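Hey team,

Sharing the Lysosomal Pro-X carboxypeptidase run so nobody has to redo it. Sequence (516 residues) first:
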Amino acid sequence: MGRRALLLLLLSFLAPWATKALRPALRALGSLHLPTNPTSLPAVAKNYSVLYFQQKALAGHLHICIFQLNHYKTPLVDHFGFNTVKTFNQRYLVADKYWKKNGGSILFYTGNEGDIIWFCNNTGFMWDVAEELKAMLVFAEHRYYGESLPFGDNSFKDSRHLNFLTSEQALADFAELIKHLKRTIPGAENQPVIAIGGSYGGMLAAWFRMKYPHMAVGALAASAPIWQFEDLVPCGVFMKIVTTDFRKSGPYCSESIRRSWDAINRLSNTGSGLQWLTGALHLCSPLTSQDIQHLKDWISETWVNLAMVDYPYASNFLQPLPAWPIKVVCQYLKNPNVSDSLLLQNIFQALNVYYNYSGQVKCLNISETATSSLGTLGWSYQACTEVVMPFCTNGVDDMFEPHSWNLKELSDECFEQWGVRPRPSWITTMYGGKNISSHTNIVFSNGELDPWSGGGVTKDITDTLVAVTISEGAHHLDLRAKNALDPTSVLLARALEVRHMKNWIRDFYDRAGKQH
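Structure output:
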């Protein structure tokens, strides 16, 4: 696996991206979630209305529709300084179909690095449990993503404008929004709030409970790699899990991929070999010798993406994919002991499952691995400042070309792109790393198929810092809407998560009753 791809695995998770929007060295690997037009996708909840309006009070707007889209105009650009009062419009969604003023709750989604409508539409779990928990659903958009841009079109102009894009500022936005909701919605003031999020959003949910325990009674942090920092976990664990997914899905699948890199190297040594590779892989543009590392990175990104969306049913997350897509891919990678040309023809068939399962694609574009072009710049800046996640490969425990973690290379890339250098120890300083046992009421869920589980909490820390493991789960499968093909492990996980949330809600009302 190439230098560039490994340096930017830290851009991979949920971040939407498009390669043309960034320098090649700051391209995201294995990114998830956002479509080109998120509002056009089917929502989990049917028959909802989307309304745009600006107001400082929510009184009277509830019960109009399943959810309304509101602009909240009071969050400060900088919560931690006192020499500016500049504000911006933060977008959030509210759904109150099943909310009860008496004995109800507020489920608060801590928005990820992208358009909040997409996360709302793809977090079916919250919609599925809303009636049972008598819950109002709130989906808060993360600053610098979607339409919540502190400086409008200038938000990504330079590092001076991006200086306020941090997890700490985002958490403060959420806190101010919750205060606003409780102050302006009749019946919400004395209700418990539970933070919920997946991936980076899951990290934010956990960190919100840690930093603002008086505002959230608990948190569900799904697929949240809060320990993928510094040396808290081995840098190679992510790619090792990707490899395990492929190895378990076919006896010679990962070995075929491991051998494909040398086959590409050998065939690309000549002009005729490059021409043959272009045709065999059905690429849209002719390969040159300068493209080979990019080609290998693109293929690596594809395997990573497949590991994250290896769902038990057909899905259309990054691309239209069949159920258990890695098993389908591995049907073409059964024999690593073949000629270079035959091996790479098999690699093409495997890639074609990801890029052309619909059968409508005429050629493969090595500049694209996902369907989105949103959210890239913000996440690349975050990965260059505080969200610094070490990744490495060795080619032995994993199926990729060896590459060591090199912080200096990343730092130089970030300085060239943004004029900033990363602070790799800041997240552990701010949020505690593995020293979090003093906190309470957080459920950390992880799927064993998800490569991000390697940086997640997979064992109970205390009785109230609980790990839920989903043996057949990919990236936050538990937050997706219920499906007839859901494996038993995710059904049990969701039931356990709801039980914890019910306990938090009951304890909140028990304490409130004693105080009165």
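The first strand starts at residue 67 and ends at 72.

Ping me if you want the raw files.
A.
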